[in-house]
């Protein structure tokens, strides 16, 4: 990854290593820090361009995977970020919070189990109040549930 340049045209088929990835299993929700190798969600490879200067973002599932990458990118693009995450994933969320701070942005840590609808309401209210507004919602936290029709998917 040392030679990675996000602005240089690269072949995505050969850009990243495919070797050395053993099968891994964690009980949900799981920690990114326990993966081997630990994936790069932009920590080493993404640099911002101030495209979101002055914006305020709420990212759920901000401790790992897509949520982590979104939080890092938003901060490096100039946004203040509220990180919502499951209490068991605090270790990963603290890492993301440090990266947001390193980008010179304000970070708010909001922990709770988003399977509880009232927690979702509180997370949004707390993010809104602590950041002084919200411009971006990246609602990434979730658990896959199969239904025949999306109308059958309840808030539960």
From TrEMBL:
Pfam families assigned: adh_short
Cross-referenced InterPro entries: NAD(P)-bd_dom_sf (IPR036291), SDR_fam (IPR002347)
Gene that encodes it: yghA_1
Single Gene Ontology MF annotation: oxidoreductase activity, acting on CH-OH group of donors
Name of protein: Oxidoreductase
Compositional bias per record (Polar residues), positions renumbered to this chain: 8-35
Annotated signal peptide: none
Ranges where the record places region Disordered: 1-47
Keyword list, A-Z: Oxidoreductase
Homology family: Belongs to the short-chain dehydrogenases/reductases (SDR) family.
């Amino acid at each position: 990854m040392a030679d990675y340049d996000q602005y240089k045209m690269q072949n995505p088929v050969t850009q990243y290593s495919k070797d050395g990835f053993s099968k891994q299993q964690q009980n949900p929700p799981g920690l990114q820090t326990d993966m081997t190798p630990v994936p790069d969600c932009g920590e080493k490879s993404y640099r911002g361009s101030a495209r979101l200067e002055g914006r305020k973002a709420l990212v759920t599932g901000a401790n790992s995977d897509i949520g982590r990458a979104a939080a890092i990118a938003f901060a490096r693009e100039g946004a203040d970020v509220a990180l919502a995450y499951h209490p068991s994933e605090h270790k990963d969320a603290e890492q993301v919070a440090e990266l947001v701070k390193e980008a010179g942005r304000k970070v708010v840590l909001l922990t709770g189990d988003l399977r509880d609808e009232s927690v979702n309401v509180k997370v949004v209210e707390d993010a809104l109040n602590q950041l002084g507004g919200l411009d971006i919602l990246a609602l990434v936290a979730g658990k896959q549930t199969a239904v025949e029709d999306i109308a059958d998917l309840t808030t539960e």
